Amino acid sequence: xxxxNKNAKVVYYSETGTTEDIAKKISQAxxxxxxRIEPEQPYTSADLDWEDSNSRSTKEMNDRSARLAxxxxxxxxxxxxxxxxxxxxxxxxxxxxxxTFIESNDLSGKTIVTFCTSGETSxxxxxRQLKAEYPALDFVKGKRLNxxxxxxxxxxxxxxxK
Length: 162
Description:
5 helices, 5 strands
């Protein structure tokens, strides 16, 4: 059995399991530990109704200062050089719970490789937003990986290391 890659960690937020599936494949490809970002107050389906201007997710995404409490906010990152940070795209951005994670952990000096899942939206807007909010951090624009196979993910990771 191979030793776990202690230099990388896969951190992700997922509500429907789509982003979680990709995170697990990245973890497998990199032999890296997984960490799931979980809001302290779970979302209901009504909370996630993006067509309802009064839904919890809509209100949070319309408030750039919104920060959600998360379970186990601190994650062990000593010795970690690369953090793969994954999330679904909400309103062309990372969900606010991702901001809470970033602000709760010391990511300075780490390479943060983003990845996302989305029906149609690219990762570009979310990475621009993260770079603008956290200019001292080293964000690498990853890609949208909906339904990607392990071999596709391995090729993508390999391309990042060149």
